[in-house]
Amino acid sequence: MKKKWIAAGAAGLFLLSASAGVYAGSNLQQIKAFLDPSMKFLVNGKPFQPQNDKGAALAPISYNGSTYLPVRAISNALGVNIEYNGATNTIILGEKLAGIPIADSYGSSGQRTKDPQSTSYNGKDYKDVHFNNLSGARSDGFSLYPKGKYQKIVIQVAAIGKDIEEFFVSDAETDIKLKTDTIAVSEGLKTYEIDISGVERLYIHSDLEDGGSIFVPLTTSYYK
């Protein structure tokens, strides 16, 4: 029987320690399901035991040909943030952002990477980044396509190895610079909020020295 990994909402709510009051007005449906303690899991090739927030072992639920896994346990195994909003009865997986991540509007560039060896900064894995660590003094640039749909962009940038003496974000259609700055290695991951009302295409540019790199997380930089 083919098994599917499905994050079960009801199980996830228990693991998030939601109060009984959350369920009082909900539209729950009673089903007949089975716990399957015999099922084993491997995460990145290593044995994994689902557990609740107190460390007790949990068994997956088998129902109608699918295997339902606890939300909290799976989020911990995969390193994904999780939070429960009782007011809206919503499970929030991943980063909480005020807008739309820029990843989907990123233009083609050889410096985009999802390689885990290149996507981490200060101990955090950003999963999808623009990372230019080529050798030699060079210019770096990539385009974003907001297509006039957003008021602002919030973009994070870090200099690695050497300071970035010139960094700018421009309206690619008019060549007007919307933000210019220098970025020091010691400043860590800097966050810029820039007005982009009506802008169709953005160009992000930096001048890099030999031994210097630029790191732009595409998952935590966003439009709003």
Overview of the structural elements:
By secondary structure, this protein is mainly beta. The chain has two domains: 5-93, no CATH class; 100-223, Galactose-binding domain-like (Jelly Rolls, Sandwich), CATH 2.60.120. It has helices spanning 9-15, 21-24, 71-78, and strands spanning 5-8, 34-35, 41-43, 46-48, 61-63, 66-70, 82-85, 90-93, 100-101, 112-113, 120-121, 124-125, 129-132, 138-144, 152-160, 164-171, 176-183, 190-195, 202-208, 213-217, 222-223. The strands form six sheets. Strands 9, 10, 13, 15, 18, 20 and 21 form a seven-stranded antiparallel β-sheet that branches. Strands 1-6-5-2 form a four-stranded mixed β-sheet. A four-stranded antiparallel β-sheet has the order 14-19-16-17, with no helix packed on it. The longest helix has 8 residues, at 71-78. It is elongated and about 65 Å long. The two termini are 44 Å apart.
Strand and helix map with partners:
Elements: E1 5-8, H1 9-15, H2 21-24, E2 34-35, E3 41-43, E4 46-48, E5 61-63, E6 66-70, H3 71-78, E7 82-85, E8 90-93, E9 100-101, E10 112-113, E11 120-121, E12 124-125, E13 129-132, E14 138-144, E15 152-160, E16 164-171, E17 176-183, E18 190-195, E19 202-208, E20 213-217, E21 222-223
Parallel strand pairs: 1-6
Antiparallel strand pairs: 2-5, 3-4, 5-6, 7-8, 9-21, 10-13, 11-12, 13-20, 14-19, 15-18, 15-20, 15-21, 16-17, 16-19
Pfam family, one: Cu_amine_oxidN1
Keywords: Signal
Protein name: Stalk domain-containing protein
